[in-house]
Design goal:
alpha/beta, Rossmann fold, seven-stranded parallel beta sheet, about 15% strand, binds adenosine-5'-triphosphate, binds magnesium ion
Length: about 280
């Protein structure tokens, strides 16, 4: 693309649980797509923390300071409406969101939206607009609790929770708007090499849940210090060949992890572009 005729593919990274790795994941996906020459626009709906926008600001500064040629996408920060009663704020949020989407569809192959770790009008609108919804969850029953509660003795899924119900509503809403479907992907994040028993239990709860709620459950990312360290430089593991960073074995493994994540997302044109490498 982009010839202005087709709509952009909307990727939303969302989970009402704070700190599950949404912004880190979003940044790695964005840079992976840019490395394949895709036009990508970023929307940061977390107008308070602005983690993704800050990540990109750091990238810009680092590239300038070190004279590096790094691709940097346009980023739009959309804050929620603050004035008026609930209906007025909902109206304002909906208007601002759709105007921004209309503008970005014209110029992008992909629109990548990073949601805040809480419920809001804007986050709900983004979920309904998603073609691909990615939900990172940390490897713990505390995080899984937002998707479903589990039986304390058997660890079997008992009933669905808040976030799964919100996504269900978003799917219904989306079907009504344009009969579109949302490819919901739940990925584990920060899986550790230790604590095999917990890992197995969370794994089987997620496998059971994916049939009931209809998401695709993928492996995701391991717990690695490097994901935390790269933020101040605005770099990702995908950039290493274009920078002065020293590459260790752990980085190589992490890069493979990102590559597998990108394959697992099954985004339009992704395979095609890999084949053209
Ligand atoms: N795979 C990982 N390994 C190690 N640390 C990670 C990993 N993924 C994320 N982190 C760290 O976990 C913390 C939370 O990550 P991040 O900010 O991406 O989450 P978030 O879901 O966007 O949070 P919020 O809900 O506050 O927006 C950060 O300190 C980040 O560096
Ligand atoms: Mg975030």
């Amino acid at each position: 693309m982009s010839e202005g005729t087709e709509k952009a593919h909307i990727i939303v990274v969302g989970n009402e649980k704070g700190g599950s790795g949404k912004s880190t994941t979003a940044m790695h996906i964005a840079v992976s797509l840019m490395q394949r020459d895709c036009n990508i626009s970023i929307v940061d709906l977390d107008s308070r923390q602005k983690t993704l926008a800050r990540y990109l600001e750091n990238r810009l500064n680092y590239a300038e300071q070190h004279k590096l040629k790094l691709s940097i996408p346009d980023v739009y920060i959309l804050g929620r409406a603050m004035d008026g009663d609930l209906d007025q704020m909902m109206f304002e949020d909906t208007k601002n969101f759709s105007e921004l989407m209309d503008e970005l569809h014209e110029q992008s192959d992909y629109i990548l939206i990073d949601c805040p770790g809480s419920d809001s009008n804007l986050a709900r609108l983004a979920h309904s607009a998603a073609d691909t919804l990615i939900t990172p969850i940390n490897d713990s029953f505390v995080d899984l609790d937002l998707l479903a509660s589990v039986d304390p003795d058997t660890f079997k899924v008992d009933k669905l929770s808040l976030y799964s119900e919100m996504v269900w509503d978003a799917r219904k809403h989306r079907a009504m708007i344009d009969r579109g479907t949302i490819d919901w992907i739940v990925m584990r994040n920060r899986t550790s090499a230790l604590d095999a028993k917990n890992k197995r239990r969370v794994n089987s709860a997620l496998k059971e849940l994916q049939k009931r709620v209809s998401f695709r459950y993928i492996q995701g990312l391991g717990e690695r210090v490097v994901y935390r360290e790269l933020f101040p430089k605005g770099l990702t593991l995908v950039d290493f060949r274009d920078t002065d960073q020293k590459i260790t074995l752990s980085h190589v493994a992490a890069r493979q992890e990102i590559r597998r994540l990108m394959d697992d997302l099954q985004l339009p044109n992704w395979k095609l572009q890999i084949e053209n490498d």
